[in-house]
Amino acid sequence: MIYITGDTHGEQARFAALREYGEPEWTGDDCLIVCGDFGYIFYDDEKERLFLDELEQKPYTVCFVDGNHENFPAICRYPVETWNGGKVHRIRRNVLHLMRGQVFDIDGKTFFTMGGAYSIDRYMRKEGVSYWNEEVPDGDDYREASENLKRCGHKVDYIITHTAPREMIMRMGHYPDPQDMELTGFLEWIMYEVKYKHWYCGHWHMDREMSENFTALWYDVAVIK
Questions:
Q1: Which of 22, 56, 71, 124 has the fewest CB atoms within 10 Å around its CB?
Q2: 3-class DSSP assignment, residue 8
């Protein structure tokens, strides 16, 4: 089965909490997807590497799209490979960064992935230490996303992003940040132009069903059988 959850922010306890969803019995056929702000490659230190080594002992696959609170230079040092039809950074044998604008075939279902978001708390952070400009997608990311969506006929089963389209952000009671308008606008275009069964996002630190086919996740875990 495929399990989807929200921002983990490098919290090791999040994996212990998965026991509620039967994690000790998950097998090589199972996959966990994190909707950004994975955070276990943030300080790029020995403590994080040891935890990643622990994750490598899990039988299932751990995947994540990037959020805004990620160490992008550290992630990009890992090799780029093709996995299930899309590009990934392979962090460990079974720990994969699902790169932006890709379409993956996982367990017979198609997933479009688009990480990234603008950090509204930049004023509290230091560039190159606690935030990186790569947190926001660039022109190449948008072009690759558009090409891959066109290649699959603008139809996928599921969409996994970090942030959300503008309309959904406003439904959450927020207003899209001006610095994030290009990305949230692009996601809004996808929302109306791409056919999909369900969309999952993180970033907003809430667990809420926004519509019949759009879910914001933080601690909750969605299950796709």
A1: 124
A2: coil
Asked if residues 183 and 201 have their Cβ atoms less than 8 Å apart, the reply is no
Confidence (pTM): 0.98
Task: Please state, in angstroms and rounded to a whole number, the distance separating the CA atoms of residues 159 and 72.
Answer: 22
| Domain ranges across the chain | 2-224
- In order of 91, 116, 125, the CA distances from 138 in angstroms are 23, 10, 21
pLDDT tens digit string along 110-122?
A: 999 999 999 999 9
Q: Please give the sequence-ordered ranges of beta strands (E in DSSP) within the chain, or none if there are none.
A: 2-5, 31-34, 61-64, 80-83, 86-92, 95-98, 102-106, 109-114, 158-161, 198-201, 208-211, 214-216, 221-224
Digit-coded pLDDT (tens) for 59-86 = 999 999 999 999 999 999 999 999 999 9
Here the tokens at position 105 are 């075939």
CATH classification number, 2-224, choose in 3.40.50, 2.30.30, 3.30.70, 3.60.21: 3.60.21
